[in-house]
Amino acid sequence: MTVYFDSSALVAVYVTEAFSARARRELRKLSCVPWTLLHDLEVRNALRLLHGRRHIDEAELHGLLGHIDDDLQRGRLARPVIDLTAAFRRAEELSRKHGSKTLARTLDVLHVAALLEIGCETLVSGDERQITLAKAEGLRALDIRAGT
Hints:
The chain has about 150 residues and is mostly helical. It has 7 helices and 5 strands, in the order E-H-H-E-H-H-E-H-H-E-H-E.
């Protein structure tokens, strides 16, 4: 696995929104993508927030969560081995090096640290600050907001 989808891009895969077409197109190019503990919390929480804000109903929420579980079982989403202590240390290093310039939020920094820890070379995201951080580290970054 060399391509890492940020939570923003994965939510766009599962829930139809403005940038879903690009996110889904990029995902179709791959056999599987990493699903870290960060994704597990952030994507599922984002879906629950959509339900709480009444953008999706209870049945849709359960269907989407089930879809994620199915993709995990089928191997479409893969759980890489990641040392969380190393990822947090790397995140602190990224923050120290780039935080005042990129203004990336903590979870965005953690995602970039995680992708570096598991050896990914490309980030797919819809978050401008996270993309800027990834590029500052010499990574390739695809913005799902572009080219839709």
